Inverse folding.
């Protein structure tokens, strides 16, 4: 639950005008870049996600992520936060969510926002986890009943569904008792892209277990399902390519 406590930081709640947001984003990026600590880099990643959410959810403060003054490196993870804001506003109504995103997103990074649609669908799918999430994170996202998975995802393109499934996997890890249980659930859902979900599981696992990367990078080979095994491996590779415990693009470089 450490990520939820980090993103609940009151200093990151907004609203922010555009110059304040840009300054905060640059500060988080510089903090991550200057530190040798994987923990500090990871915390900065979570905070950037929260900052993107807090900046995007308020009307009338110039909260547009297509602003060229925003550092390019922070845009992927800031757009994940934008996705959370879209869910707060739309309550899983596809057209409303996409309109909200398109009004605020940088076109090149819009797909990153869709990951959070899957994350929050999985958060709200089960009442006990939803309540725990709200308690620990002090989230202001309202409780609402999510649509059935098939009804929700059939409204999106195949590539959008893949990204959304990645977000579901991210939440499956946090709400499961073990890594194996999260993978089993991802594989057992016939309509879920198990490879994309396993990639999200690997991403979440590697963020939490950043102090034992040797062990983390050795995982996945025993997964029997080929699609999930490849997806899990891809998630770990994405983690390495993005730089020292961060993800969603090399945002600290």
């Amino acid at each position: 639950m450490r990520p939820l406590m980090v993103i609940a930081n009151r200093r990151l709640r907004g609203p922010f005008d555009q110059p304040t947001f840009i300054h905060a984003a640059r500060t988080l990026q510089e903090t991550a870049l200057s530190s040798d600590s994987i923990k500090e880099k990871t915390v900065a990643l979570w905070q950037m996600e929260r900052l993107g959410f807090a900046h995007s959810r308020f009307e009338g403060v110039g909260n547009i992520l297509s602003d060229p003054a925003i550092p390019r490196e922070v845009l992927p993870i800031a757009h994940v936060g934008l996705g959370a804001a879209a869910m707060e506003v739309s309550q899983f109504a596809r057209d409303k969510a996409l309109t909200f995103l398109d009004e605020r997103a940088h076109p090149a990074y819009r797909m990153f926002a869709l990951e959070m649609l899957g994350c929050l669908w999985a958060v709200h799918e089960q009442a006990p986890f939803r309540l725990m999430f709200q308690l620990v994170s002090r989230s202001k996202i309202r409780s609402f009943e999510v649509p059935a998975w098939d009804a929700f995802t059939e409204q999106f393109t195949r590539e959008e569904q893949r990204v959304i499934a990645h977000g579901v996997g991210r939440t499956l890890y946090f709400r499961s008792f073990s890594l194996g249980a999260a993978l089993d659930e991802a594989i057992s859902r016939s309509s879920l892209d198990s490879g994309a979900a396993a990639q999200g599981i690997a991403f979440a696992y590697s963020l939490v277990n950043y102090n034992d990367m040797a062990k983390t990078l050795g995982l996945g080979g025993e997964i029997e399902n080929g699609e999930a095994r490849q997806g899990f491996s891809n998630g770990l590779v994405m983690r390495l390519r993005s730089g020292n415990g961060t993800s969603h693009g090399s945002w600290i470089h």
About this structure: The radius of gyration is 17 Å. Residues 134 and 140 are 7 Å apart (CA to CA). Confidence is low (pLDDT under 50) at residues 1-8, 244-253. Residues 38-56 form the longest helix (19 residues).
